[in-house]
Amino acid sequence: MRLNKPNDMNPKRILFVEGDERFLKALARTFVAEGYEVLLAEDGAGAVSTARQEQPDLILLSIYFPPDVAHGGGVSWDGFLILSWIRKMEELKATRVVIVGDEDSAELREQARSAGASGYFPKTCGPDQLLSMVRQLLPQAVANQAAA
User: CATH for 7-147?
Assistant: First the structure.
């Protein structure tokens, strides 16, 4: 699914991969209101497919997902497995990925870094902190908004 603010020219594209539909849509609305184009995926297969087809500027990737029954009969995806698939695709090797988890843990931060993520974001922090992190990772987006 794609959400975007209609009058933006060349917005930065962010793929949100999250199994919690309510959390996903709340964050998506925040980022659309800030001028980003938002792509949504709710499971591992959708994440890999959308990332390959759309080649977003940034991927916000949840760690935990329910079994992917709709795409393979119960494949147990997690954010680190999805990240390893993304890193194998030549066209996505340079794409920045932020792992999003339920807890603020030094162990998860290190695991995210080791897996090739650009950062780790705990859901216990609010959308403003996530927006700030994204602006640091995609600084051109801020310049584009200021020019608009």
Answer: 3.40.50.2300
